[in-house]
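QA checklist item 7 of 12: single-chain prediction sanity check.
[x] sequence parsed
[x] length recorded as 277
[x] structure emitted
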Amino acid sequence: MKTELLALGATFLAVASGFSGELPLIFDKPFLGCFVGYAKARDFEFAIGGGGTSELFFRKDRKTRLQTGGTTLKIYFVLEEKVNGNKWTNRFMSEDGFETSFKETATPEMGKPVSFTATYTGDTKVEITHIFTKSSVEISTRVVEKTTKNEVRVGVKVLAGDLYRHIKEEITKREAKTKIKEGRIEVWPVGSKRSKRIDLSDLEIKLPEEFPKGASKFSLESDRIADHEYSLTTADPALGNITFKQRNELFHGFSLYWWPDPAKGEKKDARLVIEVD
C-alpha cells in the first residue's frame, strides 16, 4: 500500500504540473478507485471514475444506493470528428492522458467546479467540468486544444440502462403493460412547446425515429429506480440539445447524447443539468 500511495503522489504531482497521467484516486469506500465522490445530495450519489467516466447512483433511502444492473446512469464524455466532409467518427479517450490541478476527494464543495482535461485520439484535449448541488449535477465540456483541421464536437453520453433485464423473453403488448407498469419517459422535442409522454411498455417506439431533431429536455420515472424521476436538460435550452440511440425495445435501455452548440460552447449556461427528484 505504501508503494501505491507513493506512486499516487507522483501521479498527482505530474498531472498538477501539467504532464499527462492518470487521475488521482480515492482509496476509501464507498468511492474506492474514484477521482471524485459526491454523497451530499438527497436522492443520489455520484462518482467520477479514475478512467474519466462518471456514474450516478439513485438512493433507495438515505443509507442505501441502488447498484443492481441497469439502475445507475453511466456517463461518458464523447469527442467526434467529422471526416470526409460529412461523417462523424468517434475519438477515444486516452487511458493515461489526464491533467488536473484538483486532488482526489469524497467531499467536493457544492456549487464549486471540479475540472480535469482529457486527451483523445489525435491529441485533441477536452476540459470536463462537474458542479454539484443538492438535487443535480451540472456538466460542461469544451475543446481546449484542437489538433485537427476537421470539425469536432464534444458532448456527454448518458446510458439509460436496462431496468428490466430480468425480462429475457419476447413479450406481447399486453404482457408488457402487465410487467412494466410504472415506468414512463417525457420528451420535449426540439422546436415544440409541448412535451410527449411515452410508457416504457410501448414496444413500437423508437426514439431516434420519434424525435429525429432531438429534444430540448428529457425525463424518466420508474419504480425500478425507487420511484425517482430524473431529467436531462441544458442550463439554457438554446445552447444545447439531446439526441437518442436505441437498439432494443424502450424498456431495455437506450443512450442519450447531449451536444452543446459548438459556436456557443464558451457561454456559462452551455451545461448539461442532470436533476434527480
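[x] summary fact logged: Residues 2-16 form the longest helix (15 residues).
[ ] second reviewer sign-off
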